[in-house]
Amino acid sequence: MGDDEIPDLPRERLWTLGPAALTARELLAILLGTGNREVGVGVLAGRLLDGQEGSLRRLASRPHGEFLRSPGIGPTKAARLVAAFEIGTRLALEPRPAAPRIREPEDIVRRFSARLRDLQVEEFHLLALDSQSRVLREVLVTRGLLNSSLVHPREVFRPAIAEAAAGIIVVHNHPSGDPTPSAEDRAVTRQLVAAGQLLDLPLYDHVIIAGDRFTSFAAAGLL
Which member of 32, 168, 178, 185 has the greatest number of CB atoms within 10 A? Predict the structure, then answer.
């Protein structure tokens, strides 16, 4: 395989299935990027691991200069390996930041207002929360006109289920500057409330941001 050839399969699997689904060899192959004229990048990755009995930890603990003595590993590939292992070490040592907690609608507005208040199209966002109302994940669900066909409960709840969320909050903007819920807003909210009841994953609030004003379905008693 030539130096300009990069196999797509590991990268495709990463984007389709997520990095956790890839083997250590596939992850190393993505990191190395290319093989050489004699062997492909998958073989190079396999040789690195085989030389350390399949252990990434042993591979990471090798003296850096040894990578340069591995067949097919030049300065660029060796530098990528050293940098990746150093990032892993620093990540393991770095304390996990406290997840922001949502206590009231104003917390939601502070999080989204700067992004949404001046947009000329509607964006619909999801916040997946844990049992302490801390944000596990934020997802842009759709961008464009809001209606019940575009904002399908499946697309809203899928990432929340993946995060094992205890509940969700949804947020969208009104470019008109009027935060009054429309008929479509109410229909979408009813759909999400019903789906959340079936999934035991409640909708805590639906907040509409319009310029410097907002409406909270929960605060207004509309849920």
Answer: 168
Question: Taking 50 as the threshold, does the pLDDT of residue 30 lie above it?
Answer: yes
Q: Hey, how many other C-beta atoms are within 10 angstroms of the C-beta on 115?
A: 14
CB count, 10 Å around CB of 18? 10
pTM: 0.59
Domains of the chain: 9-93 (1.10.150), 105-216 (3.40.140.10)
Instruction: Output the average pLDDT for the chain.
Output: 89
Tell me which residue of 133, 113, 134 sits closest to 125, measured CA to CA. 113
Nearest residue to 143 (alpha-carbon basis) of 125, 160, 118: 125
Euclidean distance between CA atoms 120 and 123, whole angstroms: 9
